[in-house]
Write a structure and sequence with these properties.
Number of helices: 7
Order of helices and strands: HHHHHHH
Oligomer: single chain
Radius of gyration: 16 Å
Largest sheet: none
Structural class: mainly alpha
């Protein structure tokens, strides 16, 4: 029970912030902005680039991406954004820096980012 309470306590702020941002996007961001700037192959690269510096729980990102998909964001681009937030974060790299060489961290980041971009592009192509 105590562990479940701790997990819920840790997750709730991220979910609340994510739902808030999603609500703002849903209510105030015009659909034309999403479709014009985030569609196409470059949108996937942009989503990954934007997702890397964001440090958040994946559960907080889901409402944001759901709102963006509702505004016309391609599913693959949204998926790429969510995966980059979960797999590539600057604080994670700072922790890894203590136990890994910079070259290995860079190799990890490039490999994972490349895989995320490929998956995002494939999902956009297939859906």
């Amino acid at each position: 029970y105590v562990e479940a309470k701790d997990i819920i306590t840790d997750i709730v702020p991220y979910v609340v912030v994510g739902v808030g941002i999603g609500a703002v996007i849903h209510g105030f961001v015009p659909q034309t902005i999403v479709t014009e700037y985030l569609s196409g192959p470059l949108g996937v690269f942009g989503a990954v680039a934007v997702g890397v510096p964001i440090y958040t729980n994946i559960l907080g990102v889901i409402p944001v991406v759901e709102s963006l998909i509702g505004k016309g964001l391609p599913v693959g681009t949204g998926l790429a954004f969510m995966m980059s937030v979960a797999a590539l974060s600057l604080p994670q790299f700072m922790i890894l820096k203590k136990v890994m060489k910079k070259e290995l961290i860079a190799s990890f980041a490039v490999t994972v980012a490349s895989g995320i971009v490929v998956i995002g592009l494939l999902f956009n192509l297939l859906l």
